[in-house]
Amino acid sequence: MQIKALRHKTKSLTPFAALLPMALVTLVAYLGATLWSIKVSFSSSRTMPTDTFVGLAQYTKLFENERWLLSIENIAIYTVLFILVSMVLGFLLAVFIDQKVTAEGVLRTVFLYPYAMSFVATGLIWQWMLTPGIGIEYAVRQMGFPDFVFDWIIDQDKVIYTILIATVWQTAGLVMALLLAALRGIDEEIWKAARLDGIPVWRVYVSIVIPMLAPAIATVFLLLSTTAIKLFDSVVAMTQGGPGTASEVPAKFIMDHLFGRANIALASAGAVMLLVPVIAILAPYAYARSRKARNIAHISEKHK
User: Fold this and answer.
1) CA angle 129–133–134, rounded 5-degree value
2) How far is CA 83 from the centre of its chain?
């Protein structure tokens, strides 16, 4: 009996043992690095970290820096448009694929393939396509439109939208895959009942289907939000933050000051501020999930 009990106990502990390396990585690499960054952001560190406490001085410098303020403005515009366009385009693609179209498997692969590429590769491809005189502009002119101009990538007011085009192209397929899986989980009887009642298709999507997709939409929103906030690779590959600093984003500002300008404290302050919106997004989601789990557990206890 003792051997059997020991085996049972060992078996129950196996999942926790398997998760231990990841838990250690999370605690040491992520949580530890976050706490260290917060500590450094309150110091006067430059090339090497120091323990000289300066309070909120680095945060004051940060928000007096025009380059940082511009990066916040850019990432705010980019994030709103990126989430909106990616979700709308991804949803439309999912609805299209859900109609049991011919060569569905091929289309799913084609739409999802860009997400398998690195953001650097995507950025370089779109940089070439958007450069005036070659790529899209050259192709359109060859089609008989010699006056066509598409110079957004060198226009300070429009360059952020070229990054939006490239990243939406890359992530829309992922949104499609997630929402398509959710659409395929909706009972066919709902569609049959809607057809019998003569309800327009668009009304079924708006009033029934989209509310039923709420958990999938929340997951997509969470993924897109965190992806947008940490935008870096595509900017470096496409514009290097230019022209000038027109396409500057917080992650690039942080990396430049960490490695290029040897200002660890200011970079850490920027990293802490970049962490704030991530927590603001994740906290309500985690709270909703935990509350839902508690409600399910409470209902289960009542029915025992």
Assistant:
1) 35
2) 8
pTM of the entire structure? 0.87
Burial of residue 164, with CB atoms counted within 10 A of its CB: 0-12 exposed, 13-18 middle, 19 or more buried: buried
Tens of pLDDT, residue by residue over 110-161, are 898 888 888 888 899 999 999 988 889 999 999 988 889 999 999 999 999 9
Cα 201 from chain centroid (whole Å): 31
Question: What's the domain range around 258?
Answer: 42-275
Report the DSSP beta bridge partners of residue 53: 43
Query: To 10 degrees, what angle do helices 66-97 and 57-64 make?
Result: 70
- Two tokens, residue 62: 């940060």
Tell me which residue of 11, 30, 12 sits closest to 22, measured CA to CA: 30
- In the chain, the number of structural domains is 1
> What's the CATH code of the domain at 81?
1.10.3720.10
183 lies in some domain: yes
Q: Is residue 217 part of a domain?
A: yes
Residues 286 and 218 sit within 8 Å (Cβ to Cβ): no
Look at residue 290 and tell me if it is in a domain: no
Which residues have C-beta within 8 Å of that of residue 229, sequence separation ≥ 6?
Answer: 75, 79, 250, 274, 277, 278
Residue 195 domain-assigned (yes or no): yes
Q: What phi, psi does 43 have (nearest 5°)?
A: -115, 180
Q: How far is CA 141 from CA 132, 155, 215, 238, in A?
A: 11, 20, 45, 23
DSSP H helices in the chain: 2-25, 32-41, 57-64, 66-97, 104-116, 119-130, 135-142, 159-183, 188-196, 201-204, 210-212, 214-229, 233-238, 250-255, 264-302
